[in-house]
Each structure stands twice: as C-alpha cells, then as structure tokens.
Amino acid sequence: MESLICPKCGGNLETISYQDVEVDRCGQCAGIWFDSLEAEQLKSIKGSEKIDLADSQEDNELESRQKQINCPRCQVTMMKMLDFDQHPIWYETCLQCGGIWFDAGEFTQFKDNFQQNRLLKQAMKVLRFKKNN
Ligand SMILES: [Zn+2]
Ligand SMILES: [Zn+2]
Hints:
With about 130 residues, the protein is of the alpha+beta class. It has three helices and six strands. The chain has one domain.
C-alpha cells in the first residue's frame, strides 16, 4: 500500500499495527488515521490506547480544531464529529470511505468514552431487567 500523507501537518503516516489491526500514525504530529471500522475494532481491544502517543498536545489546539482537513485517501473534506461524554473530543470522519482521523491523544479519550458508555449500558440493562421481572 502506498504511504499516506498526514492531513494535518503534511508528515508521512507510518503503518503500525496492534493485535492485527493496522492503523496509520503520523511520524510528526502523532495523529492517527483509521480506515473504516478500524477504530471500532481497536476500541474494544484491551491496551489499544498504546498506539496513541498522547504526549504531544501542547500545540495550538484551537487552530487545529478549526482547520478543515481532507481525507488522506479520497481527498474530500472530512466532517467534524463531536463525541461528548467523559471527554469532549472533536474528530474528523470521511463520509466517502468511512475513515476517521484522531489528533494525538484523542483515541485514548474516544476509547475512554466508549468504556464509560458500555458501563452505562450494562447498568441500564440491569435496571430494565429488574423492572421487567
Ligand atoms: Zn501529522
Ligand atoms: Zn475518505
């Protein structure tokens, strides 16, 4: 596969894999590109937040949040999505190929949100179960 260019900073994306799921991470800004469903797969895998080098958060967040980025695969403008649970995070998704872009640190928070949701759903199930009986 040809290597992709980071939509945020123009650096090269390096393919890394965790438990057989391959993602592309920027060698420069540490943002992570997930092809369709890779983020879904990875967030359920224990320890997958290790792929996220969450230490490079210092640079102008507001600016990077407002910047429009293009999908590194299809070159179309990606849509901003807000995941608002434990941590409010903005990430970009491509409506054409279903890929997702996370800035450094965001995947960890995305996964955290997911785990919170799962706990919540489990709690709801228990409540419903009790009600029905
Ligand atoms: Zn980059
Ligand atoms: Zn795309």
